[in-house]
Structure formats: C-alpha cells, structure tokens
Specification:
Keywords: Membrane, Transmembrane, Transmembrane helix. The chain is mostly helical. Helices cover 54% and strands 4% of the residues. The protein folds into 2 domains: 323 residues, no CATH class; 111 residues, no CATH class. It is globular.
C-alpha cells in the first residue's frame, strides 16, 4: 500500500493551511444577558431620574431653611449656641433650645460653599439618597419589583408633600436611614434566638446621637428599638413561656439593653434631658409649623393606605407574623398621627415590615434569563438590550439636565429668582444698598429670607418662629398684616422703624399706608410688588 503524500512534499505548509478553518463558524462576541434590562427595570431607572430632576427643580421656599442657615451662620460667627431665636428680639424671653444645631451648622457650611444652588442640590441628593435606601435596603427579599417601586413612590410622595428643602426635618432622614439599615439587613428579632447584630450595637447609638443633635424627631429612634424589645417579649409570652422565663431570655434581655443604650445616647447633646422636653413640647404644641396628622391631606392618605395594607396582610399573608414587626408599625403609626414630621418614619418602617409579609402572595413572572445560544443557525436577539439602552439614555438625560453636568457640558447655574420660590429680591437689594440698624416688620413669608439675605442682619418682628412670640405680639402682627388705621400706633409700641408690605396680598393696606405718610414716616422704595416705608432719621 502506498503511503499518502506528505503536505510538505506537495509544497504546502501545515501552519498556513486554512482549508479546515473555512468550515468552522466565525466566533461572534456576545454580550451577556445579565446586562439586558426589562421594561420594569427601565421604569425603576426612569422613576429615580424623574425624582432627581423633580426635587432639584422644585424651588426652595422663602421660609424655614433660611432661618436655619441664619442660625448656623450665627453659631459659626459667635462660636456658641444661641440662647434665644436669632434676629427675633420679641421672643427673647421664650423657652428656646437650638436642638437643630448640627443641621443648622451643616446648612450654613453648604450655603457658604455654594449658596442657594448648593442648598438645592444638597436637598435633592438627600431626598434621592433616601429613596435609594428604601429600594435597595428596606425592600429586601423576594418581593416583586413593582411592589418595591410602589414603596419608593410612597416615600417620594411623602417627601414631596412636605417639601421645604434641606430643613433639619429633611436632614433627620439621614440618621433615620442609618438606624434602620442594620435592622432591615439582619432583622434578627424575627429569628428564634436572634439577638441584635454587632453592627446594630455599633450603628444604632451613633445614629441616635447624630439624630438628637439634628432634629427633635430623634425621639422616634429609641421608641422604635423599644418597640422591637416589647415585640420580642410578646413573642416569648405567646410561645407559652412564663413571665420569668421571658424576662430571663437572652434574646429579650439583649434587645432591652439595646433600647436602654439608645435612650442613653439621646443625652449626648448640649442640653441633656432638655432635648426630651423639646421633643415632647413639639409633639404637644408644635412650634415649627408642623401639625398633627390630618387624614384629608397627602400624608394622611398615605398613612391610611399603609394601615389598610398592614390589615390586609395580617389576614392574607402566609408568612409568620412577629411581635417586633407589629410593635414597630404601631409605634410609628402613633408618632405619625401625633405629628406629620413622623410620616416619613412610618413609610420606612411600613416598607421594612410589610414587604416580607408578601412572600408567596404574588407569582414571580420574571423568568430566569437563559444563556445566549451560540448555535450557528440561531440569530442573535439585539433588541433584548433595548431597555438597557433606554435606561442609559434616561440616566444621560438626568445628568445633562442636572447642575453636575456644568463642568462637562458647560452652562450657567439657575438665577436666584428661579432657585427660590418668589423671593423679595428688590426689598433685599434696597436694604443692602441703604444699610442701617433696623427693626423690620415684614410678612412672615418674607421675613426668613430678608433676615438671611440682608448683610447687616436686621432684627425682625416675626419669622417662621412665629409661635414663640408673646400672645400680644401675635395679635398685633395679625391685625397689622390685615391692615388697619392704627398701624403707626402698633409700630410705635414696638419701636419698629421699617415696614415692608407685599402689595399683591396687602394692596388695601399699602394704599392706606401711602395715604397716611407724614413727617415721621417716608416712602423709601416701591415697586409693582412691594413697598418699604421707614422712619425718617432725625437731623
């Protein structure tokens, strides 16, 4: 038998022989399907982008946040905490504790760094950061994405209904998230012998200390931990253990010790037990413009929906019900009913409590993604990445429309008139161009901004700390704002030397004041929106 001729004998190099390669299909790089987002994923991304743009472009109010910045600026200048409301001499004798000093100081530093635009951006980042916390930390487990999106939407609506910019109440959402994070991640009270995790022991007291120096709503923190401790004890009793066995349980004792530690942490502030008095006083008689919950309002509807959702889940849920969850929800609901500032706390707690109870109630429609086939006869599916591309487009649009893109895409920041909701810029401009020691009577809606933006820091008759004024001063303010023939006598009683009138809401009063001008009072400045009347300087 003759041997087959070798290729080198025929002049062929095996290294250069590509006859067999032509029969092999060409290798095509294929992107993994894990990067293929669904329509629901696109909806989640679009929601967060829309929330970011909405909160950023919402103008800041002329009340509230500017008072807090003024307080923080005073702390920086005087290196001590104020003992009475800043630039509000008529309330100097009222009980006052600057319990928001940490938030006020932070606001003053942010304003010093970038002005109102920085305040607006910081407000947006805090709000959107809390929404991300709700979605990725509180919405744990196997709940469907659309249900997680509903929870985030309720949190966003709560923020929107109470939007005042980066106030101390808004800033308190940061320590709230810090407190709830280890509780939501570990949820040890749901375990048979689950004691608090080491991270809960570390983070919870730190969050409480920061919260106690940020806003009076800190009282919710130790109350929530105490609620878990009570719920754990109830679970032990319902399991058939005696009271002695329950009190001797390592699990019950651990949660009780954590609650006591959190209560002790609230005392790490400049006033000690005084912050407790401030918190209970604000709940009984709010002095910061908040109020008890009203069902016929946005936050009231949200609270009602959450209560109805828990009632439904308690009847239909297949998951076990834990006493800690029920007590958490009950305490948060009572707090929200007492004051609207606690509505966001209830939304966060309800998300953490209710979503695990939905396990098994909704079918999982999201099929597992099959790997991409590489058979030569199967065509690739390029449209499977359509929602991924749309999500990237939404993120790019959000970036392009935000102030963060200014360094990349160029552009100018918003003007002060657009960043703030209808500020009295003309009034402030005149006061800064004609500086002198002043005691100004102005509408409360303008007073905070005037006190903040006027360089010589004038004293104001009333600000958003209106409820701290004496009763007679409140009565005179209301009478003067509504207009009256005795305006000069009222201003003389308090030695007010500058009167600012909003002509759009006080048109009749403005006409009367201009007609009553005499040798003592002069018209200093007027526009189609406002006028300033001031005492003549003798000599």
């Amino acid at each position: 038998m003759l041997a087959a001729p070798k290729q080198e004998h025929l002049g062929m190099d095996p290294a250069n022989d590509k006859s067999n390669d032509a029969l092999q299909p060409a290798a095509t790089p294929v992107l993994s399907d894990r990067y293929a987002l669904s329509a629901l994923d696109f909806a989640v991304v679009s929601f967060f982008v829309a929330a970011y743009l909405l909160f950023y472009y919402l103008p800041l109010p002329t009340v509230g946040v500017w008072r807090d910045i003024t307080v923080g600026r005073t702390i920086l200048e005087e290196s001590q905490l104020p003992q009475h409301p800043v630039q509000l001499p008529l309330a100097a004798t009222s009980s006052y504790r600057a319990t928001n000093w940490l938030a006020d100081l932070s606001l003053a530093l942010i304003n010093r760094a970038g002005g109102p635009e920085a305040i607006s951006l910081a407000s947006t980042l805090v709000a959107c950061g809390f929404l991300l916390f709700v979605y990725f930390v509180l919405c744990r487990g196997e709940a469907p994405k659309w249900l997680k999106l509903v929870a985030v939407a309720l949190a966003a609506a709560t923020l929107l209904f109470q939007w005042q910019g980066l106030t101390p109440a808004m800033a308190s959402s940061v320590p709230l998230a810090l407190l709830l994070a280890p509780l939501a991640i570990f949820a040890r009270w749901r375990e048979a012998e689950g004691t608090p995790s080491i991270w809960t022991w570390i983070i919870a007291p730190i969050a409480i200390v920061a919260w106690a120096n940020t806003h009076w709503t800190f009282i919710a923190g130790p109350l929530l931990i105490s609620a878990i401790a009570k719920g754990v004890a109830y679970d032990s009793l319902f399991a058939g253990k005696t009271l002695r066995e329950t009190l001797g349980s390592r699990k019950v004792q651990a949660w009780a010790w954590l609650a006591q530690l959190c209560w002790f942490a609230t005392l790490l502030n400049p006033w000690g037990f005084g912050v407790w008095a401030e918190a209970f006083e604000q709940i009984v008689r709010p002095l910061d413009g908040s109020a008890p919950l009203v069902l016929a309002s946005g936050p009231g509807v949200i609270v009602a929906l959450l209560v109805a959702a828990l009632a439904f889940l308690l009847r239909r849920s297949k998951a076990p019900v834990h006493g800690g969850d029920v007590m958490l929800f009950v305490v948060a609901t009572i707090l929200a009913a007492c004051n609207t500032h606690f509505a966001l706390t209830l939304v966060a707690v309800a998300t953490m409590v209710c979503l695990p109870m939905t396990v098994g109630m909704f079918p999982q429609r999201e099929a597992a993604k099959s790997p991409v086939s590489t058979e030569k006869n199967e065509e690739p599916r390029p449209l499977r990445f359509a929602f991924t591309l749309l999500s990237l487009l939404a993120i790019w649009i959000g970036f392009a429309l935000s102030p963060i893109s200014a360094s990349v895409l160029g552009g100018t920041p918003r003007s002060l008139a657009k960043a703030i909701n209808d500020p009295p810029l003309g009034v402030v401009r005149y006061l800064n161009e004609h500086p002198r020691e002043r005691f100004i009577f102005a509408p409360v809606a303008w007073s905070d901004f005037i006190a903040f933006a006027t360089v010589d820091s004038p004293d104001m008759f009333a600000t958003s700390d209106f409820d701290r004024l004496p009763q007679q001063a409140k009565f005179d303010y209301r009478g003067l704002v509504q207009g009256g023939a005795q305006w000069q006598r009222i201003l003389d009683r308090y030695d007010v030397d500058t009167l600012v009138i909003d002509k759009r809401t006080q048109s009749e009063f403005a006409t009367q004041v201009v007609g009553d001008l005499n040798a003592e009072w002069e018209l200093a400045w007027e526009s189609d929106r406002a006028l300033i009347v001031q005492r003549r300087i003798a000599g």
